[in-house]
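#struct-queue
[09:14] JT: dropping the first one here, sequence first, then the structure tokens:
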Amino acid sequence: MGARAVRVLFDVTHPALVHLFETPARTLADRGHDVAVAAREKDVTTDLLDAAGIPYAVASRAGTGPLSRVVELAVRELGLLRIARRFRPDVVVSQVDPAAVHVARLVGASSVVFDDSEHERFAASVTHPFADVVCTPAKFRRDVPNQRRYDGFHELAYLHPERFTPDPDVLREHGVEPDEPFAVVRFVSWEAHHDVGQDGFSPAGKHRLLAELSEHAAVYVSSERDVPADVDADPLPVPSECVHDLLSFADCYVGDSQTMATEAAVLGTPAVRSNSFAGDDDMSNFRELENEYGLLESFEDEDAAIERAVEFVREPPDETLSRRRERLLTDKIDVASFVVDVVEGVA
């Protein structure tokens, strides 16, 4: 630790950020720093915080539709400002949240921003200029002010072997035999501000995907929208805090989610991703996972994605993915330790 204890406020606006920031927050607290969490009620974000036993204050709640997002941004700035004035942080840590960097300026705190999405243009344009440090993966395709590149992915802050060991007993406790074939499917709502004009699986594609997968394996679905009712598929059988154990033992992950596709890839689970982001202008992390490590396959064409996913569950790959994952882990850093170093360095 540095010469003095600092006060660190983590801004958690998405379920993935609970995972990204949990270990750094605990490590900083163990080193004698004061840590607080401001949460946004979105999907299972607060459920994950509760399951992890992390105290938090709610700054805002996610709405739906473009107008609600504009209103929420104003509400969030006020809610986060109230939390910050009570806590008096020295550092505010976030992922591309304009409210977080603006509030940091207002209370005289430094701001650290994590950004791994080149497509996050508008929010980034009103966030990066106010940040003291913007941390991006090494192959991020844009240069930004006060940038600090690191050789890793957000998901390695919590799925690196130093941080996570999959537990087959967790699955058995919830009625899933880890050695039996099963697939994990994720569909997102496409209502986030950075998803405007983008889409994933069509209703017909969802039906075909689930129907064909279920002919060869059990199928567990996480979806932000309704799924077809006449196919043999079930909701995720484990609580949200155990989804990575499920993902680790799956014969295949397939979906239109960005985060879960990366999680499956770094775990060495056969991963198929299909949405309109895929293609020549895809984000650098997906291109790297696919082109350099062969741990992910992305498709603009949902029919091609369905065929590839079915191939995975019909004929699971051999040890090739394990070897590819080992090479990835050799090349990449423990991102949780990097977060801690950056926060202590900027304080």
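[09:21] JT: and here's the second one, same format:
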Amino acid sequence: MANHDSEASEREQGEEAGESVAGRSARANVKRSPSSRTPTRSAGHIRAGAKALSREAQKILRKHRPRIDAEVAAEIDATIVEIERIRAQRPNEDIAALEYQAEHLDELLHHHASFARKSALRDTLENIGIAVLVALTVRSCVYEPFKIPSGSMMPTLRAGDHIFVNKFAYGVQIPLTTNVVGEDMVSSIERGDVIVFRYPLDETDDFIKRVIGLPGDTVRVNSDRRKIEIKRAGSDRFETVEREPLTDQACRAENSDQPIENCTVFRETLDNHVYEVRYRDDLRSNDPSKRTYLVPEGHLLVMGDNRNASHDSLAWTVIADTVSAAGVVTRADIRDVTAHKKERIELHDNGDVIRANDGANIDRARYLAERESPDRDFVLEVWRAPPIDADAVYESLAHHYGATESTTLAAVLGTDPDDGESPVPNVGEVRHGVGEAAADLIFRAPAPHDDVVFRIHCGTKRCLDKLDLGTRAGWVLENFDANPEYAARELLVREPGRADTFPGRGKQVERYLERRFGPAGEGVRIRAWRDPHEQMAVLRDAALAELGTGPLAAAMSERHGVERREAAAITDLGPDSSGDAWIIELDGGWAVVDANAKFNVLTVLECGRRRCKSRADAIELATTVASRYEIVAKEAERLPELLGQADVGGLPEIPVNLPSLYYWDHLTFVGAVLDDSHAIHVEIEWQPEQGLDAALEARKQALKSPEAVEGLGPAAWYAFTPNGHTFVFSVPETALVVELSCKSGMCPDREIARALAERARDKGGDPENFVQKGVSRPRPFVPRGNVKGRAEVIWWPTSRFWKKID
């Protein structure tokens, strides 16, 4: 603050004259009395400078007084006192006097304490450091700009959007760390929040997604992500995330406003958030499976709003060597050791339930003995333009499955078909019946496909009422309308569970034969089924009904106007006849229907007057056909040999155009009771981080009243727990810890459970049994410490400037 050049000259002159420091100061005070000057700066600058110099001087004296001349130190003290006295008079202080004292103090410090003052470089560096610290603090604790890199959050955010992220929303994150402080003073993360976080698989990348699951939640998502269910921490039931389609809103391309096809926008509601998501219909999956995520403490589950086109929690995986608990206890072991030698043993919770990110060295398996339960069965049959009249098939199905109630699909669904808004297609009459364990619904497709017949058979514990049955019929018809060629498994993709059989339609030539010889009505026609899945009795009675006879003749006559005819039993069509054969006289000949149970072959032979002039001729020809059943039962390609041109007297063959695919297919779920009392639980831990002994001890401590056992390794323990007979032991040669529990239904006594444990001990000695190389492992959860903040507003482009992010 002082003019150092002139003052230095005066100092030199005084020193040459032997003048003391006190003398020089007195002379300076006389020369530069404040009464003879006016302030050279603004009052604000003078006040700030005086305050800063006073503090600097006090700090220097505290640290370096011994190094400063006592007289100078005393003068510095006196000047500080004078400055503080003048400052105390604010706002009426003598600004000129304050400036004078500040300059004097600056001069004293410059000449006598410069060693303790900051250099210009140091001062500059400190200022830069403070600026950087402030910038980091603002960036870490307040707001940070962020650019959206992709379309994974469409329609909420588009690629190229610029947003502000509130870094203070969930607490203050200590810069360059994952530690968060002050969480209890601000709002916590909520389901539905849009957050920015460090990508768990590569923390150099920042991702933006929506929070779906919080710590302690169980989230269940089907394979195409169209259904999300959440069981909140502490709850015992799943809630489906609500959404409604926005039919008036189009999906947009990622980099433009051009609408795109095969895409649907939905409005979704999750807790306090209402926002939009979209699904790419061209990426739709027909896989009905689901995956369950148990969100661990300190983690989150996130998804993109562009639901089935987003790289999010549901898609993150790593490749690692992983262990499989099913490798140390197999189904074969269970069947060998337990009494469940013929029952189906199913493996559950092995890969479908994800509990943690880091689980490559830990795995669990649960085996259940499945027992057939007819009240949980499900069957869908589809008859597409069958070679037997569709009316006859419809009546035969209704007859054989007890569907005696005549109703409509609208009535089954409880809707009014005359209200003008009913979504139920007009399929005409449907047949409904309920048995002890299951209900049946027989119905046709709407015109022009009314030659397609459907049967739904649903156990009473799967379809609890008529509405459940009708709802499934609605699903079938909805998908059939989208594509009449869909196989049965595609017509009912929403049916929960695992299908036991879905054979598809297969090749027509392997299961069905139709040949015609000579003119219609006068020649010969044969229709033959080899090993039909449709059930022999259903086909037989449908064939008889088509001809106006058999148990359905009255129904066919009354409902469909078919002329009634009489049928006579044929007791013998050769040595392998099963006695289920019938002959019917037609207007121009004869027909023989033969259902041979021994070879599982059904034939319908129609013989006109050109070949069969008498009843005996028809029986003779049918006997010739029956003599070849054994051949075609063994070799499908020989099916045409049932009847040839030589058998019909040389009548010319008339080509028959048949589809390449068989007309019938089905989807079957065999109901099973998964009784947890017949369960085996296995958990293994390979190369535990805390060490083998510590891991074994931790599992031992979790047992109630553990009992030491011998013969299962250096240390093994047994206890009877809620999971049944439980053994815990280690396999030192492979650094493996095994915990095996067998419930009483599967292991009625301890010795059976021990036998299983011994199998596990033997197999655990070889890593080839339980270590799988290079397996893709899910890593779905975002650590809480990776969260950088909440996305709040869009600030670019201008068309959506300051739009709040829902």
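[09:30] RK: nice, looked through the second one.
[09:31] RK: The chain has four domains: 4-117, 145-163+186-316, 319-373+671-778, 510-665.
[09:31] JT: good to know. The radius of gyration is 44 Å.
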